[in-house]
Design a protein that fits this description.
50% of the residues lie in helices and 15% in strands. It folds into two domains: 195 residues, Glycogen Phosphorylase B (Rossmann fold, 3-Layer(aba) Sandwich); 165 residues, Glycogen Phosphorylase B (Rossmann fold), CATH 3.40.50.2000.
């Protein structure tokens, strides 16, 4: 029997969209190791690498310098409507490369973890009558309007709240599956905690404050470390710097002056292990990071969410009572001290996190894909 071809599409390497795409790919090969062939590509860089660089730079500049502009643009119905013709034009411009890709790989299913490639394939299906299973996999807790296309066969969403939003936009309920944000299959597996403590050189008797700023190590992490190190409570700190080499070097140089035990890590492929033993996660609320924390029942302290998707994620997590939010670096220390002196509150947050978690998400999504391909 010939292998089924599954095309996975994301944008931006090392982003949450990328990690979600990798998680689904890994799950597919776990469930059908000899029956599927996958191709996992950065759709924007593949179809238009120059425009991809320009847009990425513009986005980063907006987030850093004019966040209020991005907040206005994000999921604004007027902007969505006014840019529809432009998006269709970009899709048509990219259709030549997309056609070559589809004709060469001949996928039975296309799975997109970001709205841009999903819209590009959806418009291609509509314009040229192309037939393949198209699945949009949301990696944030809000279904913004750029996801809405009539030729998407399935939407995978993280919550019933997201499902209701899509239904209100006219998507049939049967096309929406609440399977969660796809975290790596490892997040569904229990690990040997003692072995993890030994592996990272951590002290079993001390609670762990895990600090993350996404794959780019963003946020006031150095300031937060300074504040936490002066708290009059016993704890140890683990910082995952991601690909932020400047942050890693800065923390390494000042390590000797930090008054708490601290472990500094760069980009790691096994965040499930650290989350297995952590007590609290301090992070900006990216979709993938927070979904991973939920899968491990890890309470969160949110700091400085980016406007747009992270602000919406923050609202969802606060409503679910799985996180608390600090308005500034000083309040991080105050709130953390309150949490550590209230074990009942921590336990309630942990239970709520598990209640909202989908540790088998990538495997469930892979099963749905395989069901329609065989």
């Amino acid at each position: 029997m010939s292998k089924k071809h599954i095309l996975l599409m994301y944008i931006t390497p090392y982003s949450g969209h990328y990690r979600a795409s990798l998680a689904i790919e890994k799950a597919l090969h776990m469930l059908a190791p000899n029956e599927v062939e996958t191709l996992n590509i950065d759709a924007f860089s593949y179809t238009n690498p120059i425009l991809a660089k320009v847009i990425n730079r513009t986005y980063i500049s907006l987030i850093k310098n004019r966040p209020e502009v991005w907040e206005y643009l994000y999921d604004n119905p007027r902007i969505v409507k006014n840019t529809q013709k432009l998006r269709e034009l970009i899709h048509r411009f990219n259709s030549g490369k997309l056609r070559a890709l589809l004709e060469e790989f001949k996928p039975q299913a296309v799975v997109c973890t970001q709205a841009f490639p999903c819209g590009m394939v959806a418009d291609y299906k509509k314009t040229y009558g192309y037939r393949t299973l198209l699945m949009g996999v949301l990696t944030d807790y809000i279904a913004h309007s750029y996801w809405i296309y009539e030729t998407v066969d399935y939407y995978i969403v993280p919550s019933e709240e997201t499902q209701r939003r899509l239904i209100s936009e006219g998507i049939p309920s049967g096309s929406i599956k609440v399977l969660g944000i796809p975290v790596a299959p490892e997040f569904s597996q229990k690990k040997d905690k003692q072995e993890i403590f030994r592996k990272f050189g951590l002290v079993e008797q001390l609670p762990i404050v895990l600090i993350m700023g996404g794959s780019q190590g963003l946020g006031p992490i150095s300031k937060i470390v300074n504040i936490i190190s002066h708290l009059p409570i016993p704890l140890q700190i683990v910082v995952i710097c991601g690909r932020n080499k400047f942050l890693y070097t800065k923390l390494a140089l000042k390590k000797r002056y930090i008054k708490k035990p601290i472990t500094i890590l760069g980009y790691i492929d096994n965040p499930d292990e650290i989350m297995e033993i952590a007590t609290v996660l301090i992070t900006k609320p990216g979709g993938l990071t927070t979904a991973e924390a939920l899968a491990k029942g890890l309470p969160m302290l949110i700091i400085r969410p980016l406007p747009g998707q992270e602000a919406k994620n923050s609202e969802f997590l606060l409503r679910a009572n799985v996180a608390i939010k600090a308005n500034n670096e000083i309040s991080v220390g105050i709130l953390l001290k309150e949490l550590f002196t209230s074990p009942l509150k921590l336990e309630q947050m942990r239970r709520q996190a598990l209640l909202y978690s989908h540790p088998d998400s990538s495997l469930e999504i892979a099963r749905l894909i395989l069901k329609h391909c065989f």
